Amino acid sequence: VSRFLTRLQGSIQDENTLEFLQLLDEAMKLQPKRAKRVIRIIINSKGGDCDCGFAIYDALKRSGLEIETVVEGSAASMGAIVFMAGKVRMITPNSTIAVHRPKISQIQEKSGLEDYGLTVSWLKSMESRMLNIVLCEIEEKYKAKVARDIRLGKFYSAEEAIKYGFAHKII
Asked: What is the β-pairing status of strands 88-91 and 169-170?
């Protein structure tokens, strides 16, 4: 087994997303092709830019590596989405996972859009993508509750993260 460890710390923005994706590319090149290749990502992030979070999530999913994610502190918003890319998802006892709807300020900061219709359309699209990622990992009996929690915003303790299927184990 070939292992690689990295961290995703702080706000998920253009600059650190590029750095993270370059690091992932390097990890993929360094790992022997014949060995089982595992990358462990330790996350402590309050979230950030939706497009950046989805870019990291997609890159991890298509990397061909076995992804292990660990929350050490907080995985909120886009940090929680990146966390969900893990085939094995772990959380430390005092950590939290937070989910919520995308913020309207993000699209206005990024694009300067003042058009209400476009803003609402973007928010619905982002929310739908977030729900798709999260709900495909959540136990069927909790899907409606978690979807409601995302719409309202919710923090989950380590124990709740296990109960609802965000994480597989507390370490």
From this structure: parallel
